[in-house]
Amino acid sequence: MFTPHGNHLIAGAWAPGDTRFHSAPASGPSHQFSVGRVSDVTAAAEAAEDAFASYGSTSRAERAAFLNAIADEIEARAEDITAIGTQETGLPEARLQGEHGRTTGQLRLFADHILKGDYLDRRYDAALPDRAPLPRPDLRMMQRPLGPVAVFGASNFPLAFSTAGGDTAAALAAGCPVVVKGHSAHPGTGEIVAEAILAAITRCGIHPGVFSLIQGGNREVGAALVQHPLIKAVGFTGSLAGGRALFDLCAARPEPIPFFGELGSVNPMFILDAALANRGTEIATGWAASLTMGAGQFCTNPGIAVLRAGAEADRFIDTATAALSAVAPQTMLTEGIASAYQDGQRRVAATAGVRELLTTSCNTRTAAPYLYVTEARTWLDNEILAEEVFGPLGLVITADSDAEMLEIARALQGQLTCTLHLDDGDTAQGQALLPVLARKAGRVLANGFPTGVEVSDTMVHGGPYPASTNFGATSVGTLSIRRFLRPVCYQNIPAALLPEDLRQG
Ligand code: NAP
C-alpha cells in the first residue's frame, strides 16, 4: 500500500518544504504535503533549463523509449495509483482504471507519433546558386522544442489530464522538460505518478531536470511558475477563472509566453425535429446518462439541449426528468467543487423565466442532477444561462422556429463541442446549423454524446475562448504536440551543424 511522503520532486530529488498542507480525500486517511514555495519554482525551472541543453537534442528514438518507460512504470504501480486516486477524488475504481489505460495509451501514442517524424513538418528549398537576379540559399525548416514547459492538471482527470497526462506527454515528446504544479485535490496521486516518471528517468539515463513536481497548497506557487523567465509555455486544464488569471499573468510578463488553457464549456446539443419525433425518448435517456457520468464533472458535459417547443419536446422533457430523478447523489471531487455546483444551480434557478423540472438535495461533497427549462428568448437575454455549471445540471431550451435555433447557435460562446441530433428529414436545418457550430467549437458531432474524447490523430479538444485560450490548439491527441514546438529555418548551415533530422536533403 502506497503512503505518500508529501515532498516535491525537484530534479531527481525528493525535497521537503517548510510548511505542510493536509489533503482532503473523499475517503481514507488524509496525508500531509509540502506547500510549494517560490524557491522550489526557481530550482525546478533552472534544472529544467539545464536539462533542455541535452534533452532538447535527444533523438526521437531516445524520447520514444523514455515515454514508453514512463508508461511501463505507471503500469507497474497500477494498483497503488488506483487505490490512492479513488480515495483522493471519490471517483469510482473502474473510472481510475480506465483513465490509467488512457494515460499510458497516450504516452505510447506519442512515442509512436514522434518516431514517424511527420510532426517535424520538415521543409526543404534546395539552393539555386544560378538563379537570377539573386541566387537562393539552401533553406531547411523543422519544428524545434520551445524549452521548459509548466503544466497544471485538472481535478477531474487525476491521471489523464494531470502529472503524466496529455500536456506532460506532448511536451516531453516534443523535447521540452516539464515542471508540473501538482493539483491540491489529488497530491498523493501526483506523487506516485512522479515516482514512476523518476524511475523512467533513471532507467533511460535522462537528465533529472527533465521533470519536476511542485505540490500546491497555495496559489502563489502557480503564479510564480508561469512568470518564471525560464518557462517558455504553459499547458493548463481547469476552470475559466483560474485559467484566465494565469493567462493574464503570462501575457503581462516582460517576455509574454503562450498559455494553452483548456477551460470550461456547456457543450450544447441541438435536437432537430425529425430526430426528436423519431428518437426523442432514446436521446433523452442517453442525455441523462451522459449528463450524470462522473457526477457531471466532465469538461465535455452536454449541459444544454435545444429543441423545438411542442408535444415532442414535452415528451423529451418527461423522459429526461424521469431518467435523471433515478440517479443517486454522487461524490464530487472536492467540497469546493460541490459548493460551486450549488452556487451555479442557484444562479440558474434565480433567473426569471427559468422553470425547475427536477430538484434534488446534496450534502457538502455530493451532487445530484438538476433539470431546468426555459424559452429561447429568455436564454438569449440572460448571458448567465450560457455559463458552465460544473456538475450534472441540465437546461432545456425550447425554440419556436428554425430561425430561433439558428439565433441560439449564433449567440453561443466558444465551446469544446457542439452536437447535432438529426435524422433524414433534418438535413436542411443541419446544413444551416453546422457552419455556425463549426465556428463555435473545436469538435462538432452528430447523433452521439460528447463526453467520450478519443485520443487520436484527428481529435481536437479545444475551441474559441472561453473553451480555450488558444483556438489554434488542441490539448488531446497527437496534434497537441504542436503547442510546444516552434519553426526554425536553417539557412546555408553546414551539414555537420544541422540537427540530425534535417541532414538528408
Ligand atoms: P482549477 O480550480 O482552475 O484548478 C486547476 C489548477 O490551477 C490547480 O492546480 C489550481 O491550484 C490552479 N489554479 C487555479 N486558479 C489559480 C490561480 N488564480 N492562481 C494560481 N493557480 C491557480 O480547475 P479544476 O477544479 O481542477 O477543474 C474544474 C474545471 O476545469 C471545470 O470548470 C471544468 O470544466 C474545467 N475542465 C476543463 C477541461 C478541458 O479540457 N477544457 C478538462 C477538465 C476540466 P490549486 O491546486 O491550488 O487549486
List the helices and strands and how they pair.
Elements: E1 8-10, E2 13-15, E3 20-22, E4 32-34, H1 38-55, H2 60-76, H3 78-89, H4 93-116, E5 123-125, E6 139-145, E7 149-152, H5 166-174, E8 178-181, H6 187-204, E9 211-214, H7 220-227, E10 233-237, H8 240-252, E11 259-262, E12 269-271, H9 273-292, E13 304-308, H10 311-325, E14 330-331, H11 335-349, E15 355-358, E16 366-367, E17 370-375, H12 376-381, E18 393-399, H13 402-411, E19 415-421, H14 427-440, E20 441-446, E21 485-491
Parallel strand pairs: 7-8, 7-10, 8-9, 10-11, 12-13, 12-19, 13-18, 17-18, 19-20
Antiparallel strand pairs: 1-2, 3-4, 5-6, 6-21, 14-16, 15-17
The structure holds NADP nicotinamide-adenine-dinucleotide phosphate.
What does this structure look like?
The chain is an alpha/beta fold and 505 residues long. It has 2 domains: 8-15 and 32-128 and 137-263 and 468-502, 3-Layer(aba) Sandwich (Aldehyde Dehydrogenase, Chain A, domain 1); 269-446, 3-Layer(aba) Sandwich (Aldehyde Dehydrogenase, Chain A, domain 2), CATH 3.40.309.10. The protein has 14 helices and 21 strands. It has helices spanning 38-55, 60-76, 78-89, 93-116, 166-174, 187-204, 220-227, 240-252, 273-292, 311-325, 335-349, 376-381, 402-411, 427-440; strands at 8-10, 13-15, 20-22, 32-34, 123-125, 139-145, 149-152, 178-181, 211-214, 233-237, 259-262, 269-271, 304-308, 330-331, 355-358, 366-367, 370-375, 393-399, 415-421, 441-446, 485-491. It has a 7-stranded mixed beta sheet, sandwiched between helices. It has a 5-stranded parallel beta sheet with strand order 9-8-7-10-11, sandwiched between helices. Strands 5-6-21 form a 3-stranded antiparallel beta sheet, with no helix packed on it. Helix 1 runs parallel beside helix 7 (220-227). The longest helix is centred in the first third of the chain and has 24 residues, at 93-116. It is globular. The protein starts with 7 loop residues before the first strand and ends in a 14-residue tail after the last strand. The chain binds NADP nicotinamide-adenine-dinucleotide phosphate. NADP nicotinamide-adenine-dinucleotide phosphate binds at residues 152, 154-157, 161, 181, 183-184, 216, 219, 222-223, 237-239, 242, 245-246, 262-264, 299, 337, 388, 390, 416, 461, 475.
